[in-house]
Amino acid sequence: MFSFLRKTAMPTPDQALPGRSEAMPVPERHYVLNTPLKPPFPEHVETALFGMGCFWGAERRFWTLAGVHTTAVGYAAGLTPNPTYREVCTGMTGHNEVVQVVFDPAVIRYIDLLKVFWESHDPTQGMGQGNDIGTQYRSGIYVHGEAQATWATQSCAVFQAALKARNLGTITTEILPAPHFYFAEADHQQYLAKHPGGYCGLGGTGVDCPDLAQIAPSA
């Protein structure tokens, strides 16, 4: 019971694992898109950051979209610097499993990414997603700038209304300014492309997200 509670409650700074100063080494190029995994990126692209359960399936949802320049999985919104996957799984880093999406806004809009985000997981489950339980599986949108913050917040209200119309639950998604993104280990990058039969616990509510262009026509 203690172990379960520990994994579903955020650690305090004095409880969090110490981590390390060395950044995680990762491949130079995306396994599927063959684009650089790390900056510098082209000047015209923008970055989005999402947590929606196990990051293997979450990343695959985005690298298949036209206009996405590159994706990477990692850890964010916690306390431990440069954590390992094993450390994140203890629940003692506070980090969420996240996917970083670098996209061309001339081809795919941020609101298009938000629609994929809302429809691809169940954002009402608190510290977990399906059978995956723990702080690392919480739903989160980590925004870069005021425009993303506005669209994320408004899209949350729109999708909550759609869920309510189906008598479904209350959204628990955290919407925060984008924290530092720590790359996950090389083995986790584009995992489901390397292991097509690998585990994917991602599953939506079956509710379509309404047209977000109605709330942000210029997004």
Automatic annotation (TrEMBL):
<dbReference type="GO" id="GO:0005737">
    <property type="term" value="C:cytoplasm"/>
</dbReference>
<comment type="similarity">
    <text>Belongs to the MsrA Met sulfoxide reductase family.</text>
</comment>
<dbReference type="InterPro" id="IPR036509">
    <property type="entry name" value="Met_Sox_Rdtase_MsrA_sf"/>
</dbReference>
<keyword id="KW-0560">Oxidoreductase</keyword>
<comment type="function">
    <text>Has an important function as a repair enzyme for proteins that have been inactivated by oxidation. Catalyzes the reversible oxidation-reduction of methionine sulfoxide in proteins to methionine.</text>
</comment>
<feature type="active site">
    <location>
        <position position="54"/>
    </location>
</feature>
<dbReference type="InterPro" id="IPR050162">
    <property type="entry name" value="MsrA_MetSO_reductase"/>
</dbReference>
<feature type="domain" description="Peptide methionine sulphoxide reductase MsrA">
    <location>
        <begin position="47"/>
        <end position="200"/>
    </location>
</feature>
<dbReference type="GO" id="GO:0008113">
    <property type="term" value="F:peptide-methionine (S)-S-oxide reductase activity"/>
</dbReference>
<dbReference type="GO" id="GO:0034599">
    <property type="term" value="P:cellular response to oxidative stress"/>
</dbReference>
<dbReference type="InterPro" id="IPR002569">
    <property type="entry name" value="Met_Sox_Rdtase_MsrA_dom"/>
</dbReference>
<dbReference type="Pfam" id="PF01625">
    <property type="entry name" value="PMSR"/>
</dbReference>
<protein>
    <recommendedName>
        <fullName>Peptide methionine sulfoxide reductase MsrA</fullName>
        <ecNumber>1.8.4.11</ecNumber>
    </recommendedName>
</protein>
<feature type="region of interest" description="Disordered">
    <location>
        <begin position="1"/>
        <end position="21"/>
    </location>
</feature>
<dbReference type="GO" id="GO:0033744">
    <property type="term" value="F:L-methionine:thioredoxin-disulfide S-oxidoreductase activity"/>
</dbReference>
